[in-house]
């Protein structure tokens, strides 16, 4: 029989959610508050927004602060049972591929500081949020939770990928050296209606939705359009992240994604169909398209989540992204 989620694990636990005002962090905070946990959210609000948490306002403690400050990390970790570390810079391809230094430095600092503070303050449980970007370009497809320290992370996200690899290494070492309970998850392309639009820094799904609903015609898409990705709604993504944090704290990475990938060409068609738009679509093969195929071997995830079935399918998710567009851009 499937394990009940959420179980009693979170009840009355003091939990620090870093980056809790962000895209994934806000969905995760909402879910966590249904479990009876006492939640503190910290965020510097560089991309996060308080209104993401408006449905649960007054139900958690909020601290505004920057986790590149190790002293602040120490103050926040004091007395916590669990730290779920989602803070960081996670941008789309266009920004990431030309800012490897920024992505490496910012994300590594936040991760190293927060886990070290948790260790010093004897926090028992910690979640490292890694990424599918740790995998090399030639990883097997669907991708198993390989040991990724052979070769480079995917080229377009190299700086970001290295930061995530360092976080995973720190987790592995701290587990062995200090016996901390640490879970690691590697999300694959989460999306959802709370996405924060940030121009050229934005991810592929919201970028395509915006450009199609803006009425771009012809619509020029980067790459051949044959590149394939798997998408998972943020609500399902964070539920799975919480299950991994609760049930698999052995510093062994777990993919948060499945092998149901779709080509970018077909995703464009789906968005056009759902929105009723009919642009002429051109594919610009002089522009990078990232890895040809990205999808997860979900064997371990299915075991840890006891066969959890995602609730939000891609067509419904695309409809939600259309509503996101109208809310965000007022058209
Ligand atoms: N969105 C994705 O496609 C994706 C995929 C895999 C992994 N992830 C990881 O999931 C986590 C959450 O990403 P997201 O998509 O919700 O991004 P997001 O930008 O919406 O959320 C990150 C949050 O962290 C905050 N933040 C950033 N730097 C900070 C700092 N120095 N101190 C305090 N707060 C800071 C931001 O204000 C924001 O609220 C990140 O670790 C990211 O790397 C995201």
The mean pLDDT is: 94
Main pleated sheet: 7 strands, parallel
Oligomer: single chain
State the distance separating the first and last CA atoms: 47 Å
The succession of helices and strands, N to C, reads: EHEEHEHHEHEEHEEEHEEHEEHH
Secondary structure category: alpha/beta
Q: Which CATH class of the domain at 14-194 and 231-259 and 295-312 is shown?
A: Alpha Beta
* Strand segment tally: 14
Shape: globular
Tell me the helix content.
25-40%
Give the helices and strands, then pairings.
Blueprint: E1 14-18, H1 23-33, E2 38-43, E3 61-64, H2 70-77, E4 82-85, H3 93-96, H4 100-120, E5 125-129, H5 158-178, E6 181-187, E7 190-191, H6 204-213, E8 219-222, E9 228-229, E10 232-233, H7 234-247, E11 250-256, E12 262-263, H8 264-275, E13 281-284, E14 293-294, H9 299-304, H10 314-329
Parallel strand pairs: 1-2, 1-4, 2-3, 4-5, 5-6, 6-11, 7-10, 8-13, 9-14
Antiparallel strand pairs: 9-12
Helix pairs in contact: 1-7, 2-4, 4-5, 6-8, 6-10, 8-10
Nicotinamide-adenine-dinucleotide (NAD) binds at residues 19, 21-25, 43-48, 66-68, 86-90, 110, 129, 131, 187, 189-190, 196, 203.
């Amino acid at each position: 029989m499937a394990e009940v989620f959420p179980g009693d694990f979170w009840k009355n636990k003091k939990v620090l959610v870093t980056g809790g005002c962000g895209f994934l962090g806000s969905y995760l905070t909402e879910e966590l508050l249904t479990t009876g946990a006492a939640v503190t959210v910290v965020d510097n609000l560089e991309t996060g927004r308080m209104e993401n948490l408006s449905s649960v306002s007054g139900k958690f403690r909020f601290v505004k602060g920057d986790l590149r400050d190790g002293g602040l990390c120490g103050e926040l970790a004091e007395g916590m049972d669990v730290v779920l570390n989602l803070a960081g810079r996670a941008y789309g391809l266009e920004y990431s591929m030309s800012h490897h230094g920024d992505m490496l430095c910012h994300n590594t600092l936040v991760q190293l500081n927060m886990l070290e503070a948790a260790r010093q303050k004897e926090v028992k449980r910690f979640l490292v949020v890694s990424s599918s970007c740790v995998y090399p370009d030639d990883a097997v497809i669907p991708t198993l939770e390989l040991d990724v320290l052979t070769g480079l992370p995917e080229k377009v996200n190299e700086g970001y990928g290295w930061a995530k690899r360092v976080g995973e290494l720190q987790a592995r070492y701290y587990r062995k050296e200090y016996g901390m309970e640490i879970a690691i998850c590697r999300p694959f392309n989460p999306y959802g209606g709370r996405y924060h639009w940030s121009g050229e820094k934005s991810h592929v799904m919201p970028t395509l939705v915006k450009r199609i609903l803006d009425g771009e015609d012809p619509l020029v898409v980067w790459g051949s359009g044959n590149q394939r990705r798997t998408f998972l709604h943020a609500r399902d993504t964070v539920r799975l992240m919480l299950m991994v944090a609760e049930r698999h704290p052995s510093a062994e990475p777990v993919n948060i994604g499945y092998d149901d990938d779709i080509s970018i060409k077909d995703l464009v068609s789906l968005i056009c169909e759902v929105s009723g738009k009919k642009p002429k679509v051109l594919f610009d093969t002089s522009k990078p398209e990232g890895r040809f195929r990205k999808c997860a071997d979900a064997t371990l995830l299915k075991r840890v989540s006891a066969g959890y079935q995602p609730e939000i399918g891609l067509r419904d998710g695309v409809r939600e992204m259309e509503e996101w567009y109208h809310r965000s851009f007022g058209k």
